[in-house]
């Protein structure tokens, strides 16, 4: 049996509803009649043999099948857009790079600096680590940055370093003048710990001392920038990867605490398809790897 045929407009309408959460809002954005949007989605659902949206009083949400289609729809539309851009020799090369949210705020500014002066228009996209790999593999992203040991298969992978976990506090914090500390010494300190995935659970548990007050638990977050922001604005100690503390340390806003942490670190990698190695943007980033390693390790 042949696969159902999808039109570009099917994907555009579907993606707009998924993003806006509303059939009427999608119709307004696409400048088509609302019944036309409803009819197109109904026809698409019949062809696919599944329901894509649940419509309710507060808008439309994706079903599990719709969630699966959403990623494919976005990547297909991105590839079509890139194809059109690629035919216009008068515009800069478009370079799509993906990174997890916990790394994007650090690595994308460095990437843009590495591309300064080149006819390359970079677009930084935030995605989960496994989605980064999928997008690089299927071509909807030209390169990606990873924090964890995700299987990359046929992708080329360049190591950027291993960023150790460090404890930091704002300048002027009462612990700034303390001597060498053990995690147990922070039992009375307010703590927020970066928790990147299952690998980070033992690190958070190391601070969850039995004598810690129940009204001052150890907080965790999947965003090192959030943990750092909390430490800058309060008396919390943040346990985060060193790369996330880089700029604030240079500015003198925070200080490293001499806490004897277990040897946890976060692996940093750049991945790309071999077929993209000759793209000017990817070539520039590969040439900039020594500088990127130095910046991320400082």
- Mean pLDDT across all amino acids: 87
Number of strands: 11
Q: Assign the CATH architecture of the largest domain.
A: 3-Layer(aba) Sandwich
Beta percentage is: 15-25%
Could you name the ranges where pLDDT drops below 50 across 5 or more consecutive residues? none
| Cα separation of the termini | 57 Å
The number of domains: 3
Question: Could you estimate the helical fraction of the residues in percent?
Answer: 40-55%
CATH topology of the largest domain: D-Maltodextrin-Binding Protein, domain 2
Structural account:
- The mean pLDDT is 87.
- The protein has helices at 8-20, 23-30, 34-48, 64-86, 101-114, 129-138, 201-206, 224-233, 242-250, 280-287, 289-297, and strands spanning 53-56, 59-62, 93-99, 120-126, 143-146, 156-170, 191-194, 219-221, 237-241, 254-257, 265-272.
- Strand 7, helix 7 (201-206) and strand 8 (219-221) form a beta-alpha-beta unit.
- The termini are far apart.
- It is built from 11 helices and 11 strands.
- Strands 3, 4, 5, 6, 7, 8, 9, 10 and 11 form a 9-stranded mixed sheet that branches.
- The radius of gyration is 23 Å and the shape is globular.
- With 298 residues, the protein is α/β, with parallel strands linked by helices.
- It has 3 domains: 8-74, Arc Repressor Mutant, subunit A, CATH 1.10.10; 89-161 and 267-297, 3-Layer(aba) Sandwich (D-Maltodextrin-Binding Protein, domain 2), CATH 3.40.190; 162-263, D-Maltodextrin-Binding Protein, domain 2 (3-Layer(aba) Sandwich), CATH 3.40.190.290.
Comma- or semicolon-separated keywords:
transcription cis-regulatory region binding; 9-stranded mixed sheet; 11 strands; D-Maltodextrin-Binding Protein, domain 2; alpha/beta; 11 helices; DNA-binding transcription factor activity; transcription
């Amino acid at each position: 049996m042949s696969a159902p045929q999808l039109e570009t407009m099917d994907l555009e309408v579907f993606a707009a509803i998924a993003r806006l959460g509303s059939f009427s809002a999608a119709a307004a954005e696409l400048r088509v009649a609302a019944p036309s949007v409803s009819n197109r989605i109904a026809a698409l659902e019949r062809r696919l043999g599944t329901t894509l949206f649940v419509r309710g009083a507060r808008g439309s949400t994706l079903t599990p099948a719709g969630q699966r289609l959403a990623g494919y729809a976005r990547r297909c539309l991105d590839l079509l857009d890139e194809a059109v851009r690629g035919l216009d020799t008068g515009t800069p090369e478009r370079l799509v790079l993906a990174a997890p949210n916990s790394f994007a705020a650090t690595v994308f500014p460095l990437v843009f600096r590495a591309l300064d002066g080149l006819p390359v228009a970079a677009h930084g996209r935030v995605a989960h680590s496994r989605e980064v790999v999928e997008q690089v593999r299927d071509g909807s992203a030209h390169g990606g940055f990873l924090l964890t040991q995700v299987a990359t298969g046929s992708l080329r992978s360049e190591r950027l370093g291993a960023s150790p976990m460090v404890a930091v506090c704002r300048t002027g914090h009462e612990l700034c003048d303390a001597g060498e500390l053990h995690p147990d010494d922070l039992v009375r300190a307010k703590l927020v710990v970066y928790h990147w995935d299952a690998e980070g659970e033992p690190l958070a548990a190391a601070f969850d001392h039995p004598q810690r007050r129940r009204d001052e638990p150890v907080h965790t977050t999947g965003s090192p920038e959030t943990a750092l922001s909390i430490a800058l604005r309060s008396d919390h100690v943040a346990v985060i990867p060193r790369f996330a503390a880089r700029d604030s340390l240079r500015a003198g806003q925070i200080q490293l605490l001499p806490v004897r942490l277990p040897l946890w670190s976060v692996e940093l990698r750049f991945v790309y398809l071999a077929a993209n190695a000759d793209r000017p943007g990817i070539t520039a980033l590969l040439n900039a790897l020594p500088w990127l390693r130095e910046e991320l390790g400082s």
